[in-house]
Amino acid sequence: MESKDPETGRWNQDCIRCHATHGIPQITDEGVDTTVGELGIACEACHGPGAEHIAANSAPSRRYLEHLGANDGDPTMVNPDRLDSDRSAQVCGNCHGLAIFQEPADMKEWMTGGYKFRPGDDLQAVRHVLEVDYDDPVVKRVLKDQPYALDDRFWSDGMVRVGGREYAGFVRSACYTHGALSCVSGHEMHREPDDKRPLEEWLDDQLAEDAVQDGACVDCHALEGRQGEAHTHHAPGTTGAACYDCHMPPTTWGLLKGIRQHEIDSPTVAVSLETGRPNACNMCHLDKTLAWTAEHLGAWTGDVQPELTTKEQEIAASILVDPGGRGRPARADGLGDGLGRRDRDQRGQRLDGSLAGPPHGRPLRRRAARVGAFPAPRRWLQGHRVRLHGSPCGARGGLQVDLLPLERAAAHPHRPGAGAG
User: Fold this and answer.
1) Contact by Cβ (8 Å): 154, 165
2) What is the pLDDT at residue 81?
3) Are 171 and 179 within 8 A, CB to CB?
4) What is the block-wise mean pLDDT of the chain (421 residues), using blocks of 10 residues?
5) How far is C-alpha 92 from the geometric centre of its chain's CA atoms?
6) Within 10 A of 135 (CB to CB), how many other CB atoms are there?
7) What is the pLDDT of residue 30?
């Protein structure tokens, strides 16, 4: 492929990093001569180079012995399931993390020779996993060229907020830092022959069969699993009773929807106030206030009741979501006034709502799972009444929010007890 058009080369230097196997951009002033091992995510992307494996298994007898389990895994091929949790997760983190080059020279080397990282290697030795650390020299270098690089990708407390970067959140979880959890604890890239689920069901997130419900959690958290409703405070079988819904709510954004965060934590109102990130309780109970959530969490966990404004006590949290949080200090180094406090949001509207909101007279419908990931500017809501309908705990966030102009609200009254004004 020969081209000097920078847009023609977009795939060659961006998408190729993860959406091809062993891609080498080879972009020069003379043109583009990109090569790939294979288009798409093929075997060697996760298992490493296969030449030795192919040569060793050219004899049918060896293949049969391996198939029958004569050896404890084939040493000629990397299998993430046999690696320790760190190295196993790093296989995924090479693409599903915010991994950047350690030095500018590393990018030049990648342009001509491809990635040095191979499955089973130490990812941190060859690439830098981006975190919210303003003292990190690599972060300083990135912010010099891209002042909003962290704002775009992280909530203010460092939790990742964009989809496809699950590793960046996963490695901050206690289940990883103090345990042996890895990506393959919950995900299964190759469907087992005895998996009775329809293919389409497995393809939805490629979850292991025993991890679809709470299996991946109660393997370690057996006590909480036995406590049942005494721990979850939700009736068995309901959405709120699932581990994921409280500890991995959809606060990252990608593929035009909310996606489960992979930094495993517990909901608190204090964090919502500080960061603007919706907590798991209010993402389901859209008609409830932060005061309601704080009261319940306080009764269950003993959390100290945070100081709330009148609005936070009286108005549904789904209406008051603030992507920057309150009380964020200004940055002293001139690199912006803190995460989420940009003048404009991802769509180009001003965060203070001074530019156009929803077209007048037309309702804005949003899925419950999307509320908060990139919330509407608050001024969009002025002059509108909120109508909630559907089931807040239904499949895939069945509760929906309609923002109706006040003159139309009379024609669309709230269902008793379902909405907030």
Assistant:
1) no
2) 92
3) no
4) 57 89 88 90 95 89 80 86 95 92 88 92 92 91 90 91 92 92 92 91 89 86 91 90 92 89 94 92 94 95 89 90 51 34 32 29 31 37 45 41 44 36 30
5) 14
6) 6
7) 82
Nearest-5° angle of CA 179, CA 185, CA 191?
Answer: 170
* Residue 248 exposed, middle or buried by CB count within 10 Å (0-12, 13-18, 19+): buried
**How far apart, in whole angstroms, are the C-alpha atoms of residue 138 and residue 101?**
9
Burial of 249 (0-12, 13-18, 19+ CB in 10 A): buried
Cβ neighbours of 105 (radius 10 Å): 9
pLDDT at position 8: 58
Please write down the HEC assignment for all residues of the chain. CCCCCCCCCHHHHCHHHCCEECCECCEECCEECCECCEECCCHHHHHCCCHHHHHHCCCHHHHHHHHCCCCCCCCCCCCHHHCCHHHHHHHHHHHHCCEEECCHHHHHHHHHHCCCCCCCCCHHHHEEECCCCCCCHHHHHHHHHCCCHHHHHECCCCCECECCCHHHHHCCCHHHHCCCCCHHHCECCCCCCCCCCCHHHHHCCCECHHHCCCHHHHCCCHHHHHHCHHHHCCCCCCHHHCHHHHHCCCCEEECCEEECCCCCCCCCHHHHHHHCCCCHHHHHCCCCEHHHHHHHHHHHHCCCCCCCCHHHHHCEHHHHCCCCCCCCCCCCCCCCCCCCCCCECCCCCECCCCCCCCCCCCCEEEEHHHCCCCCCCHHHHCCEEEEEECCCCCCCCCCEEEEEEHHHHCCCCCCCCCCCC
Q: What is the pLDDT of residue 63?
A: 84
Q: What is the pLDDT of residue 6?
A: 55
The pTM assigned to this predicted structure is 0.74
Residue 69 CB: number of other CB atoms within 10 A?
Answer: 8
Nearest to 242 by CA among 197, 297, 284, 286: 284
User: What are φ and ψ of residue 39, in 5° steps?
Assistant: -75, 135
Q: Is the dihedral of CA 351, 354, 356, 358 positive or negative?
A: positive
- pLDDT at residue 322, as a whole number: 66
Please report where in the chains the tokens 């419900």 appear, as a residue. Answer: 213
